[in-house]
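step 3/5: co-fold with 3-methyl-2-oxobutanoic acid
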Amino acid sequence: MKQRGEKFAMLTAYDYPTARAAQVAGVHSLLVGDSMGMVVLGHSSTREIPLSALLLVAEAVRRGAPSPFLIGDMPFEAMASGDSAVLAAAHAFLTAGCDAVKIECEPHHAELIGKVSRAGIPAIAHLGLRPQAVTTSDGYRAQARDDAGLRELVAIARRMEQAGASMLLIEAVPPEAAEAVCRAVSILVVGCGAGPSCDGHVVVTHDMLGLGPAKPPKFVPVLADLNGAIESAMKRYVAAIAGGEYPGPQHSYSMRSITHGANR
Ligand code: KIV
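step 4/5: write tokens
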């Protein structure tokens, strides 16, 4: 797609029906993101989600979406347990149906990216804002907003490419910083709030669909109001039961035959 000058669309997916919808809609890539811990499970950070939950979901997403390039997100649990835990988790993601793994990277993680890619597992280095490093709700801030930050981002991007990363994901940086990264590397760059020059773009699906309590970051295109749709349907359900309209004859099974005297 890059060679044809086409941009790719990536979304997060945390379940089978959403994956099916993404497949039908022609979404090119899906990420089983650790944001699931916050968005679906209600945790206050992305750190709590266990690898086992991500693997279970990755399998379901693959069942729903056979075509998209599927990425498993390396959870904090594995990152905090050392390189061999990360390598084992990366293999488990592949077994679950993923094509690649994404790893939130500080500069010293170049070695880890090298180990994963030498093991034959495409590794995506997540740079810029790294949610696993955020421990307070006001910690979600744009990165690389000055010259020094931009240079640092470009340097780490180059380092990850040299180490063997097959793609970069840069989150919450100004378009100028993303453009500098795109010029500095030849691998694909996917942006998450990183301006138009990236090769593809990703947002959290629930944010894009207007689903859930969180106010989405400013870079998210909110294209639906599923909170509104779900709440209104649930209110109608409650009202239909209260008013005796549900269940009606159309929701009820009929008897095949009535045996006279069955109750005697
Ligand atoms: O887990 C996730 O959803 C992510 C995206 C924000 C890129 O890492």
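step 5/5: annotate
Residues 12, 31, 33-35, 73, 169, 171, 192, 202, 204 surround 3-methyl-2-oxobutanoic acid (CB under 6 Å).
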